[in-house]
Structure formats: C-alpha cells, structure tokens
Design brief:
With about 300 residues, the protein is α/β, with parallel strands linked by helices. The protein has two domains: about 210 residues, NADH:ubiquinone oxidoreductase-like, 20kDa subunit (Rossmann fold, 3-Layer(aba) Sandwich); about 55 residues, Cytochrome-c3 Hydrogenase, Chain A, domain 2 (Irregular). The strands form three sheets. It has a five-stranded parallel sheet, with helices on both faces. Strands 4-8 form a two-stranded antiparallel sheet. Strands 5-6 form a two-stranded antiparallel sheet. The radius of gyration is 20 Å and the shape is globular.
C-alpha cells in the first residue's frame, strides 16, 4: 500500500514516461491533488463497444482509478460507478459545470440509434446533450475514433466516430482522438494532464490524434527497420527479420508501440515477434487481417470510411 507521497511520485513517473515531463511538475501534481489547481469533471459514456478501453485503462501500471479520483472529479462512468438505473442517469441529467471533459468509448449508431440505449434513451442523445456542456471531448479507442469493428461490411447501424457525430449535430466541442484497440492508458494520461495544465488539447494531426504518439508510423521506428532495408524478411512467424511479407501493417499505421517503454507496450505485436495488426489505423479491422505480399486475394471494400 503506497502512502500519499509514494503515490504522487508514481503518478509523476508515469506522466514522465508518457511524455509529460515538460509541462507538469511534482509540485503542480501536489497542488492539483489538494485542490489548489481546479480539477476537471469527467463524464465517460460507452456507446457501441466491448468496454475493452475501460478495462485496459484499469490495467495500467499504476491505479488509474486512483488517478481519476485524485486529480479529476469522475461524475459518471458506467463501469466504475455503483449507482444504477434512474439514480445513475439522473446524475447526468442534473449535472452542471463549466469544466467538463466528455469521454466517449465506442462507435455511435448514427442510422440505427435503437442499437445502443442507456436507460430508456438513445446513447446518441446522451452524447449530444453532454457534448454541448463539455469544454473538450476525448474519443477513447479505435471505435470512437474511426468507427472500427462496428463499421465493418454488413453492419446496419451507420456506425460513426465521435468527431463525425458531433459535426453532424453542429456541436463545436473540440475532439481529440486516441485510437488503438484498446486505448493505451498512457495516451489518455498525457492528454488529460496536458489539458489540465494548458486548458486546451495537445497538438494534433489532421485526424485529431496527438502528435506526441501518432506523428510517425510504427515502421519508422521499428526494431526490424534495418532488416527491412537489407531485405531480410521473415518467411513465417517466429523467423528473424522484418515481418512486412507476413502482412505487417506497421508501414500504414501511426502509433508509438515500438518506442514506448510502458508495461502495456512490452508485449505488443511486433515486440512479441508478430506482425502489427494495425489496430490504431482507420483501416482496422480488415477482411484479411494479415495479407502476405504473395497473397493473390483482394481485400474487398470492408468499411464505408464515410463517418470518421
């Protein structure tokens, strides 16, 4: 059991590992925890999802639940809260604040809202009404960012990303996208504390992803990049060499998997000797997950790409 000082040191260490050393000091963490710096309120809503991002979030190196309760005011999270039924939904209904961050996990059923309800109302309505109150919104995971699995061929819900949904509703709340299936805890930690310090979202690319984590492809920093240059390709999983011919999606996927030292990334695809599945890409998932260079099958249109 950590005492308060040890906990703050652990949080600061995690923040440094995530890239926040330049904007959040140990003294500022202490001030935030005791309330000298205003804590943001968080409402976390789950649309069409498997709750995997929340589960991953809770499995971080340090207790994310402790971080959330120490440095933010968690108003609503369906996985964490004890309240149920009307008692839970009334919390959102009656909530008023000028310092709200909305987090959305999962894709939004833009054409079949009945596909996802919370209480007796469409999740679309809950998200729209809450987003209007929020100063910023976070898309947690690939489904909320690019519609992901929910937008595969054959789906009838019209699954869309949070950014697309808010644009269709004419809601101007700024959105930051944190793709990866599931979302990486360190990405959320960095984004949250950056916002607390600067009262704005971190620098982002054209897809609203933080440049800190999504500025380069996995291929650019891959441990097998030298093998790629030397054309030393693995013929089967387990072989030494670049995994490109085994269908690795690193060249078309932006993420920090291979350069991150967090526990979450110690056993990712490539570090485990497996081709990258591209789970942070707008192309995820594909009908042929690993397409070798000599595979003559065509990857047919499997996503609409209309609602991201």
């Amino acid at each position: 059991m950590m005492n308060r000082r040890e906990f703050l040191k652990a949080v600061h260490k995690a923040l440094i590992a995530a890239g926040g050393a330049g904007f959040f000091s140990m003294e500022e963490l202490e001030a935030l925890e005791i309330g000298d710096i205003k804590k943001p309120d968080i409402i976390w809503l789950q649309a069409m999802s498997c709750d995997g991002c929340s589960t991953s979030f809770l499995n971080a190196d340090i207790s994310i639940l402790d971080i959330l309760t120490s440095f933010t005011n968690v108003i609503f999270h369906p996985t964490l809260m004890a309240a149920t039924g009307e008692m839970a939904t009334d919390i959102i209904e009656k909530y008023k604040s000028d310092n709200l961050i909305l987090v959305v996990e999962g894709a939004i059923p833009t054409q079949l809202p009945h596909a996802c309800l919370m209480g007796d109302r469409f999740i679309n309505d809950w998200i729209a009404n809450t987003a209007k109150k929020a100063k910023a919104a976070i898309s947690a995971g690939t489904c909320a960012t690019f519609a992901g699995i929910c937008d595969m061929k054959g789906m009838m819900t019209g699954a869309g990303s949070l950014r697309y949904f808010l644009e269709q509703e004419n809601i101007s709340t700024p959105v930051v996208n944190l793709p990866t299936c599931p979302m990486k805890p360190n990405h959320f930690l960095y984004t949250l504390f950056f916002y607390i310090k600067h009262n704005t979202l971190p620098p982002m690319d054209d897809s609203n992803r933080p440049l800190r984590f999504f500025g380069e492809t996995i291929h650019d920093r891959c441990v097998y990049y030298y093998d790629y240059q030397e054309k030393n390709f693995a013929e089967k999983i387990g072989d030494r060499g670049c995994l490109f011919k085994l269908g690795c999606q690193g060249p078309v996927t932006k993420n920090d998997c291979v350069r991150s030292s967090n526990t979450y990334d110690k056993y990712n695809c490539i570090k485990s000797g497996h081709p990258c599945v591209g789970c942070a890409s707008e192309n995820f998932p594909r009908t042929i997950m690993f397409k070798r260079s000599d595979d003559k099958r065509e990857i047919k249109k499997y996503k609409t790409f209309k609602r991201i």
